[in-house]
Amino acid sequence: MPTNCFSMNCLIVEDDRVSAKLIENYIGKTNFLKHLHTCYDAIDAANYLRKNKVDLIFLDVELPEMSGLDLAETLPKETQVIFISAQANYAVKAFEIAVTDYIQKPISYKRFLDSIQKAKKVEETQNVMESKDHIFVKTGQHLLKISIDDIRWIEAMSDYVMIFTKDKKHLVLSSLKSIEEKLPLNKFLRSHRSYIVNVDKIVSIDDSAIVIDEKTIPLGKTYKSKFLQSIRTI
Fold first, then answer.
1. Does the structure show a pLDDT above 80 at 82?
2. By CB count within 10 A, which of 10, 48, 178, 232 is most buried?
3. The model's pTM
């Protein structure tokens, strides 16, 4: 999986330095996470956040002077929070704030990964926003507007999809299913478990392949019947 095309920028807010180091270590083992900074109290974190964009915060609940719960209530909606606490009794309040997850100490790497997968799915849904004639996709730290009509085909690549237009290609952290749900059904069809094609751009179709521009795209057996039936009704 490419590691230089997308990352979630992470901030740790934890007054226990041993726990903070453990989370830093876990972030370092996870290739789509980027550790930006560690703060040891909420006030320092609030000051840091005024000047820096963060995608995900690992936030202790019990902090000096200002609690993690209070800090979370001041954050933008798009900033994800994973609460960390030695106590379970804050969980209800935490989820009322609509945080991504709540981890109780001690933190295992398995539990950390489970939580990160939740954050990743949330990020996926935020990466693509639909419109009538275009979509916005998140490439790196930028939202790129792509005309629906310019899309030739879309190819799944592990945890990413590659969107091909006439002259360019764009790598986006998303599932193929998530992208498919944003596209008009009368214009885009799944031809294979790894491909979605723009029907208007098809040059030819044979028994096992589709040609768009000069690209040969597989027509999978599982999708063939439905694909051809849909073509005839369009």
1. yes
2. 10
3. 0.56
